[in-house]
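User: Sequence in, structure out. Go.
Assistant: Echoing your sequence, followed by the C-alpha cells.
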Amino acid sequence: MFRSLSCLFVVPLSSFVLGCSTPQEVIPGVFPPGGEALATVNGKRITKDMVDAVLRVLPAQIKDQVMKNGDTSSIVESLVTSEVLYQEALARGLHKDPLVVDDLALAERNALTEALLRTIVEQRMTDDRIKQWYDEHLVQFSQPQVRLAHIVVTDKALADSIAERARKGEDFAALARDNSLDSSTSSKGGDIGWLSLDQVVDDLRTLLQNAEKGGILGPMEMGKAFHVFKALDKRETQPLEEVRDQIVETLEQDIRTEYVDELREKAAVVQMGGEGTASDAKGAPAEGAPAKAAPAEGAPAKAAPTAQ
C-alpha cells in the first residue's frame, strides 16, 4: 500500500489510469524531433536541424566556404554515415557499457562548460574592452609599414622606361596592368599591400625608409627580374580595425581564464590528500579535518630507513 501511494505523489496524472511504471531508458545522442528531413536511415530522419548543428561546430573558415557554396551535401553524407554507426552501436548496447557511460558523461559536461564559457565571452567581449586591450598593447602594433605596389619585368631598359614614365606622372596602376609579369598583383595595379619594413630585404628596406608617400623607387634587380616600386602610403601603427580579429582571439582566452579564476576563487574546493586526508587547494588540512595523531607518550619512535 505504501509503495502504491508513493507512486501517486511523484508521477503524472496519467498514472492514475496506467499505474506506476519504471522510467523509460534514456538513449544518448537523440536529436529533438522535427525539422525538415533531408534523408532517412532505416526510417530515422536526417534533418536540416542536424546539419545546422554540425555547421555551428565547424571551424569558421570551413563554415564560410560551405555557406558560400551553398552545398551541404557533404555534411548530409557525413551524418548518414554517422547515423549508420550510431544505430549499430545502440543495437550492440554499447551505450550501457560503463566506460562508454563515463565518456558520454564527460562529453555532456564539456558541452555544458563550453556553452557557459561562450556565453561569458559574448557578454564580456565589448567594443570598449577590445579598444582598451589595443591601447594597452599598442607597442606591438607600432611598427613602420609601407603600402607598396610594384611592376615586374625582365628587361632592364623597359624597367628604366617604366620608372621614368611613372616619375613624370603616368598612372602607375595602368603601367602595372599593361606591363607587369606578376599576375597576382598586375590586375590590382601592382598593389602588394601593407608590408612591415622588417619583412623586406635590406636594400629595399633602405629605399622604403627614406621614401615619400607616392614616391617611385627603382628599378631594383631582384633575382632574374627588375622591380619598379611605388610607395602608395606609409604609417607607423596598424589601426585597430586591421588587428581586431587577432585581438579578439587573444582576448577570448583571457576572458575564459579570468572567469574560471573567478569561479574557482568563490568555490569551496576540498581535495583529498594521498592518505585520504581532506585538504584545501593549497594542500593545508581542510577546516574540521582530523589532524594526524602524534605518537603516544613512551611509544618507540619510528626508525629511520637505513641505506642499502
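User: And one key feature?
Assistant: Residues 1-19, 288-308 have pLDDT under 50 and may be disordered.
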